[in-house]
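[09:14] KT: can someone run the structure on this one? pasting the chain below
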Amino acid sequence: MKEREFWIDYLRSFIILTVVIHHASLAYTTFAHFNKEIYILSTHPMVDVQRWIGFDGIVYFNDIFFMSLMFLISGFFVISSLKRKGTRLFINDRFRRLFVPFIVGVTLIALLAYYPSYISSHDDKNIFKYIADFITIEFWPPGPAWFLWVLFIFNLIFAWIFPRICVFLEHIGESLLFLINRPVALIIGWFLVTWILYVPMRLLFGPEGWASLGPFDFQISRFILYLGYFILGTIVGTIPFEKGLLSDQSTFMRNWPLFIVLSISTFCLLLLIDIPLKRLVQAGSISSFTSNLMYCSIFVASCIFSCAAYLTTAKAIFRLKNKYWDIITSNSFIIYLIHYVFIIWGQYILLNLTLPVSMKFLIVALCSIFLSFLISHYLHKIKRLSGYF
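[09:31] RB: done, structure tokens below
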């Protein structure tokens, strides 16, 4: 990656740290529940009796946008990589860097991660029974590695169709230059695209449903959204970053303080409007369908403003290279891949300890980041593994 684009790498690394914090919070939310019969149906593989409502807000805020933003960022450099490597080498590279880690993630890492959940469910430490339950009852949960196979499929599809649509995509990318100094028009267009990609699927399938074939999990209502954001990222990446929407000359990028305010405001509005909408439905003032449309529309606004806030603020803050962020960035992929093991085991170890819930959260989050980083550091020293992360 060119040095002038290092801030995107830093942003990706920051989001991965946010993912760790998100998972560390899930055991301590007020809405958490644990299903002892089938633990994968729980809100999280480990649930503590100690809760704090503040974690509800953290989890909900992150859930609205951060995986959409990850898919958007993942598309930025796809076209340049395809042009540089060619289709065959590009697919081979993505197979090594995405699909092989996915296989490792859903076998060795997932089995290590979910073992405490089995113990908590069945009060049984028999490893062979655990593995049988993992595959036949829990239907092979992949954990965070689901992102890797979905991203690999998106890359595979795009690599196949790219020669047929490359001119069309470059034309769209050039047309987006019209919006560099028209941030309002950009936001309106972004909102409409996101609304079309997400709201109909959510209304059809609900907000939480997942589908799976073995370890190949995906969230039904957001699959089209994620694909759309990935393609949107590839379109943005058709124009050099120093000239396009993410350049210093872009009015959109210079408005980062405004997007922070809009991100926080729309999220607060989303929280505030939930109960009043339910009351209006109960009173017969509006239909359930109308209520869902209003809620989903604010949800979409919260998503795009948070994505915009993270993109623009990262560009504003990460103006110079930083050796500490370089270290985090070089290890962030493995941190994402293996942190779930330390998250669930940490929450399990602290389960029956009398500690403040904030202390439990901090211990789990910090230890997970540190131990994942430590393993990543030593894995990077193994030369034969260098092509896989």
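[09:33] KT: thanks! The first strand starts at residue 210 and ends at 213.
[09:34] RB: yep, looked fine to me
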